[in-house]
Amino acid sequence: MNKKFLVIAIIVGALLGFLAGMLNIQLSDFGLSFEGLLITLVSFVVLMVLHIALHEAGHLIAGLMSGYKFVSYRLMNLMWMKHEDGTIRLHKFSLAGTGGQCLMSPPGDMDDVYPVIFYNLGGPLMNLLLALVAFLVLRMTSSQAIKNIAVDGIFIGLVFAFMNGVPVRSMGINNDGLNALELTRSPGARKAFWVQLHVCEAQSFGKRLKDMPEEWFAPDPADDLTNSLVASRMVFRENLLMDRHHFDEAEALAGDLMDSEAGVPGIYQGLLKCDMITTSLLSGKDCDNLADDGLTKILKSMNTLPQVVRTSYAIALLKDRDTQKAAACKRAFEALASTYPYASDLASEREIIALIDERNRVCENQSD
After folding, report:
1. Over the stretch 17-52, which tens digit does the pLDDT of each residue have?
2. Alpha-carbon span 89 to 72, nearest angstrom
3. For residues 216 and 166, what is the distance between their CA atoms, to the nearest angstrom?
4. Residue 92 belongs to what H/E stretch?
5. Which residues, other chains included, contact 140 with Cβ-Cβ below 8 Å and sequence gap of 6+?
């Protein structure tokens, strides 16, 4: 467990202990009956989902109040996304390690000073508000069952608020609090944050990276790549190079981002490794140094992303020479494509898959 999260858990536990003492609540008050335990467990699960949903709703409300425009809202694998014609449609999309996400595009231009604190802290503030509501219910009710549910609500609300609001980084990913802190300190981070969210908006409208403004992805000598937001913008540049089929440049940039002290979030590191494997196989180079246990985990845990399935296809066809496995990967890609929300990503990946097929034909002709 991350030490910072352990500290947060201790703080939350101490707060709950303080509340129990202030309200003279005894552990025996909650009973050990089967019914009481069942109510507590069921309410815990339901309230967890509710807090995730309303956490993202908190970002949505705060974003709208700050002048942001709605892009998408996701809970578990259900994603509501705004399209270019203004309609909001339901899609299925999941991302390993996340229970939800609300994306909105900031106001102004790329280099403007735009509001960042309220949007980023809207989620944790909503969790705190829900914890307060649960506390008021606990004070007002005489029902033991409702008291049990209220305590669950207080605990989950405080944990979510502290885990997301107290600035920490886990697996290379900033939480909401750290994002807010870095965005107030770094013009480069604000620029990168603006770009990433506007890229997401453009993709929801069906635009490919290669059709977006060049300046969004241009490197800046002043960039601090130890900042995860700034480093993520350079990951988008690598994605742009892949979309343009500038594979040598993409592979070099991916290697730099992987090998340096760049603060690339864990999920992007996995996707960079996938691109490096694909570009190596397309150019006929050995990629054994990239095929480790970590790659196996990436291919399994992130197989809802077309970039990952495309890499599995490249490995099966060009490295393992396993046509049956390659065919299964292609079927998996088409199944994913039937529900995947970003048509622009699919168009780009289909072109790369066609290049993988062409490379395979060349290899077969050479072996004849």
Report:
1. 555 555 555 444 444 455 666 667 777 888 888 999
2. 9
3. 30
4. strand 88-92
5. none
